[in-house]
């Protein structure tokens, strides 16, 4: 049943534009999670690149000459040598990626659940529909986010080039996008998309299925109603446990 135009204007924005609201909410939650966990991702990447660069130069003696050993010492070394804010170096493409990926997959999942598959007569969403919907939503979200994912990886690889004494290729995120486009065309932004969407499908099979199960539990066993606040709480509870699996 349609809502009269005058009454629609009085509705909260979340009810007037539910899909856009869920996209923004998921993007904001993913941004907060990314900012909180990015130093861990950076130190992990530095350790990986350091090992590869040292092995290329020194072979078996690389372990003895490695400047960083362990996550904590790596993080402390970055702070001491480069500054505290360098723990968030390269966070911009990571935020772009998670806004597009998280927002895209959540909107797709909600659309599949409400429009394509539909709920059962008792308003319950069967597990098999959650699994299929989660996998399809992961595929769509990752496909949309693949250009930002590619730039994120390329920017992280700049650290390896610096360790090897090679000149840097990119001046920043937007320069990386422009250079990839100019050298390989629009298709170059989707390089490696097939394994990426396969991984995203498996991750979201568990991630979004858990999200829907948590939300359904909250609605049935707490005073919370099925609204955008409950959706946000369910999303954040899942993000706390599974965020790093999408890195």
From TrEMBL:
Principal place of residence: membrane
Membrane topology type: Multi-pass membrane protein
GO cellular component, as recorded: membrane
Compartment annotation: Membrane
Solcar repeats: 21-115, 125-217
Record keywords, A-Z: Membrane, Repeat, Transmembrane, Transmembrane helix, Transport
Classification via Pfam families: Mito_carr (PF00153)
Family, per entry: Belongs to the mitochondrial carrier (TC 2.A.29) family.
The name this protein goes by in its record: Solute carrier family 25 member 27
Species whose genome carries this gene: Suricata suricatta (Meerkat)
Organism placement in taxonomy: Eukaryota, Metazoa, Chordata, Craniata, Vertebrata
